[in-house]
Structure formats: structure tokens, C-alpha cells
Design goal:
The protein is α/β, with parallel strands linked by helices. The chain is 46% helix and 14% strand. The protein is built from 16 helices and 12 strands. It has an 8-stranded parallel beta barrel with strand order 4-5-6-7-8-9-10-11, surrounded by 7 helices. A two-stranded antiparallel sheet has the order 1-12. A two-stranded antiparallel ribbon has the order 2-3. α8 crosses α10, α11 packs across α13 and α12 packs across α13. The longest helix is centred in the C-terminal third of the chain and has 22 residues. Bound molecules: ligand FNR.
């Protein structure tokens, strides 16, 4: 199977398998405040992640490119949406364009469509600093994502089986590029151990890419006859992973994995994420309903987030990160067993 065919398979099966809502956000509840003492018009959504200034905490996470015309069109449309809504956007892994220059245009289109927006390049941890510099230059990127996808590789019959020295390579990339480096998972979440190690090698941010949304074990199992079903339920749910990573990391945490609603996004930000990445959900709206529906959905997410923040008395994302909330059920059990005291969330306040 060609690389381009595989890219299209991923998109097809991602849409088919969908978002599972196993993110653990149902275990998180905001504490209602009857006197928020602010107006909807007071709420501001802009956010800073290290050197990156974002006008919204929502961003379009890495998905595509490198699969010829179909992925060119998707990246073009995603970049148009990102430009109109002022969202940052990551492209899918650019390794295919490093191996085959004729695929470069499927990525370069995002900068053409969004000349002054925040764009994020993407490569796997097998990349060298030279690969990273080419990927950044290809789209005039403001940051680089390095993805970790061990479970996806292990599930694929043709996937990698060698994972040693990834941390050294990440460190070399951090030193070798001029833009901030974000290390991300692809839907299996990051533990506090991983977050602690990553923040010690100079990465600028960690995107926990949690479990509960797009599931690459399920996608790869659907693509092949030899199935590793034991990985279908493997991973750290997004809400839990945000808590684990923000507990252990000294760099900003980005939340992603299974976001489909404003309330889950608000909970993710309140648990400690500085931004919220949407991938499969946005792709499904774009492919099934078209670009106008995706514009409309992003407007509603912004509007609803402002309403939720008003109810909590949060005029900024920094305020939202101090809103008291209750952690219950399996998530409370998990965090307690992992030595993370959930009273940190339930006994704090914005004022
Ligand atoms: C992805 N994702 C991804 N991530 C990455 O770092 N490089 C990549 O090339 C891709 N490719 C890709 C293709 C498709 C079709 C999808 C749906 C996703 C993973 C993505 O960025 C995100 O981490 C996960 O999808 C989890 O988020 P959602 O989809 O649950 O919002």
C-alpha cells in the first residue's frame, strides 16, 4: 500500500470509528457560582503558550498532508477555517514530503491560505534536526510538533518496533530548530512520568493527546487482518492525563483527545490545559457537512465557552484555570492512587 493510500485509510477509518467520549470529563463538575460578578462582554479568550500568542484556546490539531490532491484540499480548507477564526493549526506528519518532494504542495498550501496565522509543523520522533528544519521551513511554521505514537506503531503489522533513543532525538531537535517544540501524543495520553522527562529536555509545551477520542489502535486494527485488540482500550483518558501532566510538568500543557463540546474544553482548560486541540471531530464536520458547518461549529464553541466562563466568573483562561471543580468516580480514584490530591481543584477559587 502506498503512503498516500495509507493517509486516506486513516482519514476514512477515523471518521468511521469516531469519537468515543471515553475522555473521563464526565467525572469532572464545575462548582456553580451564583454571584460571578462579570458580564459576557468582559470575557477574553486569548491565550499565551510560551512565545506563542493565540487569539483562542482552540486549535486544529495535526491530521493530514502527504496524500496527494485529497489531502491538499483538506489542508487548504482547514487553513481557510483557521485563518477566518484566528485559530492555530498543525499539519499532519511531513515525513511523506521529506521522502517525496512532490507531496510538499499538500502542506505548503496552509501558509498560502493563512499568510499571517500560527502554523505548526509536525514530524515523528524518528526525525533528525535536519528533517525538523526542513519541515519548519516548508510551511513557515511558528512551532514544531513532534509526535509520539508507540501504540499505533505496535498495532500496525508494518509499524516500527524500535523506540530507543527517542528522547535523545527530541533533545537534538529542540536544540536544532529556532521555533518552540511541542511534543504530542496521538490519543493514548501522557503520564506524569513522561511529562516530567519531556519537560526536562527543553521542550516548550506538551500536548497530552489523551484517550477517549480518535483511537489509532482501533483504526490500525480495522486496516489489517492481524489484530492487536488488546490495544483498543489502552491509554490515559484525556481529563486524567491533563491532571497527571500538569502535576509533573514545568512547561505548559496542551489538552487534546476527544474534544467535541465546549463544556469538555472548559473542563480541560480548568484542569490545567493552556489550549485545546480538536482533530477528528473537526475533520468529520468538514468532510460530512462542509466548510460552512465547520465555521459555524467553531463560532458556537467560542460563544459557549464565553457563557461557561461567565457563569464561573472567569474573565480569562488564567481565571478559568483557578475555577473550583469536583473530581469524582474513576478519575478521583485514579488520581488519588497516583498521589495527586484532587482537593487542589475542589478547594481553590478565582478570587
Ligand atoms: C491524526 N493525528 C495525527 N497526529 C500527528 O501528530 N501527526 C499526524 O500525522 C496525525 N495524523 C492524523 C490523521 C487523522 C485522520 C486523525 C483523525 C488524527 C492525531 C491527532 O492530532 C490527535 O492527536 C488525535 O486524533 C486525538 O485527537 P482527537 O481526534 O480525538 O480530537
Amino acid at each position: 500500500m502506498s503512503r498516500a493510500e495509507r493517509k486516506w485509510d486513516h482519514i476514512r477509518f477515523a471518521l468511521e470509528t469516531g469519537q468515543k467520549r471515553a475522555t473521563a470529563f464526565d467525572d469532572i463538575q464545575f462548582i456553580h457560582q451564583s454571584l460571578p460578578n462579570i458580564n459576557v462582554s468582559d470575557v477574553r479568550l486569548h491565550q499565551k503558550i510560551g512565545e506563542l500568542s493565540l487569539s483562542s484556546p482552540i486549535f486544529i490539531n495535526a491530521m493530514t498532508g502527504g496524500g496527494g490532491e485529497k489531502t491538499y484540499t483538506l489542508n487548504k480548507q482547514l487553513a481557510q477555517v483557521a485563518s477566518a477564526a484566528g485559530l492555530a493549526m498543525a499539519v499532519g506528519s511531513q515525513m511523506s514530503a521529506l521522502k517525496d518532494k512532490s507531496e510538499r504542495y499538500t502542506y505548503e498550501v496552509v501558509r498560502k491560505e493563512n499568510p499571517s496565522g500560527i502554523l505548526i509543523a509536525n514530524l515523528g520522533s524518528e526525525a533528525s534536526p535536519e528533517h525538523a528544519r526542513i519541515a519548519v521551513e516548508m510551511i513557515g511554521a511558528n512551532a514544531l510538533q513532534v509526535h509520539l505514537n508507540v501504540i499505533q506503531e505496535l498495532t500496525m503489522p508494518e509499524g516500527d518496533r524500535e523506540f530507543s533513543n527517542a528522547l535523545n532525538r527530541i533533545e537534538a531537535i529542540v536544540k536544532g530548530v529556532s521555533v518552540p517544540v511541542i511534543v504530542k501524543e496521538v490519543g493514548f495520553g501522557m503520564s506524569k512520568e513522561t511529562a516530567e522527562i519531556l519537560s526536562s529536555v527543553g521542550v516548550s509545551a506538551i500536548d497530552i493527546g489523551g484517550f477517549g477520542g480518535t483511537n489509532f489502535a482501533e483504526i490500525e486494527n480495522k486496516r489489517s487482518d492481524k489484530s492487536n485488540f488488546f490495544f483498543n482500550q489502552w491509554g490515559i483518558p484525556t481529563a486524567i492525563s491533563i491532571c497527571e501532566a500538569s502535576y509533573a510538568s514545568s512547561v505548559p500543557i496542551i489538552g487534546s483527545g476527544g474534544f467535541t463540546t465546549s463544556i469538555d474544553m472548559a473542563k480541560g482548560l480548568a484542569l490545567g490545559a493552556s489550549a485545546a486541540g480538536f482533530a477528528g471531530y473537526f475533520l468529520k464536520i468538514l468532510i460530512d457537512e462542509g466548510i460552512d458547518s465547520l465555521h459555524a461549529e467553531i463560532s458556537s464553541l467560542h460563544h459557549e465557552l464565553k457563557m461557561i466562563m461567565t457563569a464561573l466568573g472567569a474573565i480569562s483562561i488564567q481565571d478559568l484555570q483557578k475555577a473550583p471543580l469536583m473530581v469524582s468516580g474513576q478519575t478521583h480514584h485514579w488520581l488519588t492512587q497516583r498521589g495527586i490530591d484532587t482537593k487542589v481543584y475542589s478547594q481553590r477559587s478565582i478570587k
